[in-house]
C-alpha cells in the first residue's frame, strides 16, 4: 500500500510539483495556481455539496489552531492587525484559558516572524495566485512553519493538527482534498532531514533554509530598516532589531506593564504610596517587578486573559507600557512645580487622542480637577469610556468625541498632552505587524502638525505646558515635528530633568527631550516600547 505521505507527494507532483525522493529536497519551485483556483464544489443553486461519505458539512468545535489560522487569514485578507482580530473573535472567547494562550502564541509568532516564514515557504513554493481559499491556505502554511521552526513543536503534532484545520474550513465551497494534501506535503517535506541522516537530532530542511536564507531583519519592511539606519546609524538599528526580534521565540515572555492609581503620585513625589503599591504587587504574585517610575511589570505567574488577573475587576490597575507613562509624568511634574499640589484641583488639563485612556487615567489619579479627554473615533471613545468606568474615574472626566484640531475649549487650558497618531514603530516588540507595514507617513505628518499647531495656538493658555509624544522611533514624526513647532515662535522647550523620569535619565537628549530606544536602557527598562516625549511652554 502506498503510504499517505508518498500518495500526497505523488498527488502534488501531478499538479506540477517535483520532489527528490532521495533527500526529500525540493527541486524547482512549487506551483499552487491550479490548487488555489479549483472548480467550484457547490451545486448550481449555491448550496454546499455533500462530503465523500454523503454527509453535508458538520459543525466542528473550534480548536486553538483553528482560531489562530482563521484570525490570521481574515487579517491577511483585510490588511488588519491579527492580534486585534483575535481579541474580538467569538471563537477565541469560547476557548478555555490554556487554548486561548496557545492561540495567542501562534498568532503572535506568525506575526513576529512573518517575513522569515514567507521566505522559507518561497524557497519551495512559487507565489500563489489569488483564489477562494488562498488566505486560509497561506495562514495554515505559516502557522505550520511557525510551530515547526520557531516554537519547536514536535513535527507529528504540528503537521497533523494544523492540516486538520483545513477540513474545518467553515465556508462553502469546502477546501478540496488536493489542496489539503498539498499543504501536508509541503510541511512534511520541510520537516525532513536536510541530508540523508535519519536520527532525531538531524537538522530539518526548514531549519537549514531558515538559517541560510533568512535573517530577523526579514521581518522588517525595507522602508523601516532604511529609516532606522538613517536616523540612528547601523549599530543602533541592529540593536533595535534584536530587541524587537529576539533570536529564540521559545524564550519570549510577554511584557505586560501595569499602571496603578498610586503610580504617578509616587513617581512625582506628591505622595508616598509604597504600602499600597506593595500590597497590590503581593496580590499579583511574588514575581511581579516594581519599575523605577512605579509601574508594575507582571511576573511569569500571571498568565492568560488579563481580565482574570487579581485587581482587574476592582479597577486597581490598567495595562500601560512603562514608556507610555512618561508624557503624563512630565506634564504632571511641571504643573505641580508651577502651581503646587494644593492647586491641582483647580487646573484644567487635556488629553488629546485619548483612547484607550491610560494617560487620562494617570492625570485623573493624580488629582487634576478638570480633565478633558478628546477622542475622534467613536469606537475607540467607547473603549475609553468603558476603561474609565471600570477604574471608577468616569465621573471625574469630560469625554469629547471630536476631531482634536476642531475642538476649542471655553477658555485656554493649563496643560495639554498630545500623543499624536503615528506609525507606532516603537511598539514593534508587542505589535510586530507594524514592523512590516508601509504607512502613509506624509498623511500622518500632516495630521501631527495640524494637531500640534492647533493645541499650541488655540487650546493652550499663556505659560501653559504642552507635552508632545509619539510611540514612533522615527525622527520625522518626533524630533523633527517638535523643532518645526518651536520654529513657529510661540513655544519653547521646558527641558525634562533627570529626577523627573526615574529610570529613564539616560534617555534625555541634549535638547532636554526624552528619546527611548528599545534595547538601549539598562535593567528591566531595556525591554520597553520606543517612545519620544518633548515638553514645551507657551510664551
UniProtKB/TrEMBL annotation:
<keyword id="KW-0949">S-adenosyl-L-methionine</keyword>
<feature type="region of interest" description="Disordered">
    <location>
        <begin position="36"/>
        <end position="57"/>
    </location>
</feature>
<dbReference type="GO" id="GO:0003723">
    <property type="term" value="F:RNA binding"/>
</dbReference>
<feature type="binding site">
    <location>
        <position position="419"/>
    </location>
    <ligand>
        <name>S-adenosyl-L-methionine</name>
    </ligand>
</feature>
<keyword id="KW-0808">Transferase</keyword>
<keyword id="KW-0489">Methyltransferase</keyword>
<dbReference type="InterPro" id="IPR006027">
    <property type="entry name" value="NusB_RsmB_TIM44"/>
</dbReference>
<comment type="similarity">
    <text>Belongs to the class I-like SAM-binding methyltransferase superfamily. RsmB/NOP family.</text>
</comment>
<dbReference type="InterPro" id="IPR029063">
    <property type="entry name" value="SAM-dependent_MTases_sf"/>
</dbReference>
<feature type="domain" description="SAM-dependent MTase RsmB/NOP-type">
    <location>
        <begin position="244"/>
        <end position="539"/>
    </location>
</feature>
<feature type="signal peptide">
    <location>
        <begin position="1"/>
        <end position="16"/>
    </location>
</feature>
<keyword id="KW-0694">RNA-binding</keyword>
<feature type="binding site">
    <location>
        <position position="375"/>
    </location>
    <ligand>
        <name>S-adenosyl-L-methionine</name>
    </ligand>
</feature>
<dbReference type="InterPro" id="IPR049560">
    <property type="entry name" value="MeTrfase_RsmB-F_NOP2_cat"/>
</dbReference>
<dbReference type="GO" id="GO:0008168">
    <property type="term" value="F:methyltransferase activity"/>
</dbReference>
<keyword id="KW-0732">Signal</keyword>
<dbReference type="InterPro" id="IPR023267">
    <property type="entry name" value="RCMT"/>
</dbReference>
<protein>
    <recommendedName>
        <fullName>SAM-dependent MTase RsmB/NOP-type domain-containing protein</fullName>
    </recommendedName>
</protein>
<dbReference type="InterPro" id="IPR001678">
    <property type="entry name" value="MeTrfase_RsmB-F_NOP2_dom"/>
</dbReference>
<dbReference type="Pfam" id="PF01189">
    <property type="entry name" value="Methyltr_RsmB-F"/>
</dbReference>
<dbReference type="InterPro" id="IPR035926">
    <property type="entry name" value="NusB-like_sf"/>
</dbReference>
<feature type="active site" description="Nucleophile">
    <location>
        <position position="471"/>
    </location>
</feature>
<dbReference type="GO" id="GO:0032259">
    <property type="term" value="P:methylation"/>
</dbReference>
<feature type="binding site">
    <location>
        <begin position="353"/>
        <end position="359"/>
    </location>
    <ligand>
        <name>S-adenosyl-L-methionine</name>
    </ligand>
</feature>
<dbReference type="Pfam" id="PF01029">
    <property type="entry name" value="NusB"/>
</dbReference>
Amino acid at each position: 500500500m502506498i503510504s499517505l505521505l508518498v500518495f500526497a507527494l505523488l498527488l502534488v507532483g501531478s499538479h506540477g510539483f517535483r520532489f527528490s525522493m532521495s533527500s526529500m529536497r525540493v527541486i524547482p519551485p512549487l506551483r499552487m495556481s491550479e490548487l488555489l483556483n479549483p472548480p467550484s464544489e457547490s451545486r448550481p443553486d449555491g448550496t454546499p455539496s455533500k462530503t465523500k461519505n454523503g454527509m453535508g458539512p458538520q459543525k466542528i468545535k473550534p480548536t486553538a489552531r483553528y482560531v489562530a489560522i482563521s484570525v490570521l487569514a481574515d487579517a491577511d485578507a483585510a490588511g488588519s492587525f491579527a492580534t486585534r482580530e483575535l481579541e474580538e473573535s467569538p471563537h477565541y472567547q469560547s476557548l478555555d484559558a490554556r487554548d486561548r494562550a496557545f492561540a495567542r502564541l501562534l498568532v503572535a509568532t506568525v506575526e513576529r516572524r512573518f517575513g522569515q516564514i514567507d521566505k522559507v515557504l518561497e524557497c519551495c513554493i512559487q507565489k500563489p495566485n489569488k483564489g477562494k481559499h488562498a488566505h486560509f491556505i497561506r495562514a495554515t502554511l505559516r502557522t505550520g512553519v511557525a510551530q515547526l521552526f520557531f516554537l519547536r513543536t514536535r513535527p507529528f503534532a504540528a503537521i497533523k493538527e494544523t492540516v486538520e484545520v483545513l477540513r474545518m474550513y467553515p465556508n462553502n465551497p469546502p477546501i478540496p482534498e488536493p489542496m489539503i494534501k498539498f499543504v501536508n506535503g509541503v510541511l512534511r517535506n520541510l520537516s525532513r532531514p536536510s541530508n540523508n541522516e535519519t536520527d532525531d537530532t538531524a537538522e530539518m530542511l526548514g531549519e537549514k533554509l531558515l538559517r541560510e536564507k533568512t535573517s530577523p531583519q526579514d521581518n522588517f519592511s525595507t522602508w523601516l530598516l532604511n529609516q532606522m539606519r538613517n536616523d540612528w546609524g547601523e549599530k543602533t538599528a541592529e540593536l533595535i532589531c534584536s530587541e524587537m526580534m529576539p533570536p529564540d521565540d521559545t524564550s519570549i515572555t510577554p511584557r505586560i506593564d501595569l499602571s496603578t492609581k498610586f503610580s504617578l503620585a509616587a513617581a512625582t513625589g506628591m505622595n508616598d504610596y509604597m504600602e499600597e503599591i506593595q500590597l497590590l504587587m503581593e496580590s499579583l504574585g511574588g514575581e511581579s517587578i516594581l519599575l523605577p517610575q512605579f509601574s508594575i511589570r507582571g511576573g511569569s505567574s500571571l498568565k492568560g486573559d488579563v481580565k482574570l488577573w487579581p485587581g482587574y475587576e476592582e479597577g486597581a490597575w490598567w495595562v500601560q507600557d512603562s514608556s507610555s507613562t512618561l508624557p503624563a509624568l512630565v506634564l504632571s511634574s511641571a504643573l505641580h512645580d508651577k502651581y503646587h499640589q494644593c492647586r491641582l484641583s483647580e487646573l484644567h488639563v487635556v488629553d488629546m487622542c485619548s483612547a484607550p485612556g491610560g494617560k487620562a487615567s494617570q492625570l485623573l489619579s493624580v488629582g487634576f480637577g478638570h480633565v478633558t479627554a478628546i477622542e475622534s473615533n467613536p469606537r475607540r471613545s467607547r473603549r475609553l469610556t468603558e476603561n474609565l468606568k471600570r477604574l471608577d474615574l468616569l465621573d471625574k472626566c469630560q469625554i469629547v468625541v471630536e476631531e482634536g484640531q476642531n475642538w476649542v475649549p471655553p477658555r485656554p487650558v493649563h496643560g495639554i498632552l498630545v500623543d499624536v497618531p503615528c506609525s507606532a514603530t516603537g511598539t514593534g516588540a508587542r505589535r510586530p505587524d507594524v514592523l512590516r507595514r508601509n504607512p502613509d507617513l506624509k498623511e500622518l505628518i500632516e495630521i501631527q502638525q495640524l494637531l500640534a499647531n492647533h493645541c499650541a495656538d488655540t487650546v493652550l493658555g499663556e505659560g501653559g505646558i504642552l507635552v508632545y509624544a509619539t510611540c514612533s522611533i522615527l525622527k520625522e514624526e518626533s524630533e523633527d515635528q517638535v523643532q518645526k513647532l518651536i520654529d513657529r515662535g510661540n513655544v519653547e522647550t521646558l527641558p525634562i530633568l533627570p529626577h523627573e523620569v526615574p529610570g529613564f535619565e539616560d534617555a534625555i537628549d541634549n535638547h532636554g527631550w526624552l528619546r527611548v530606544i528599545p534595547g538601549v536602557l539598562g535593567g528591566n527598562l531595556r525591554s520597553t516600547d520606543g517612545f519620544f516625549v518633548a515638553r514645551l511652554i507657551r510664551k
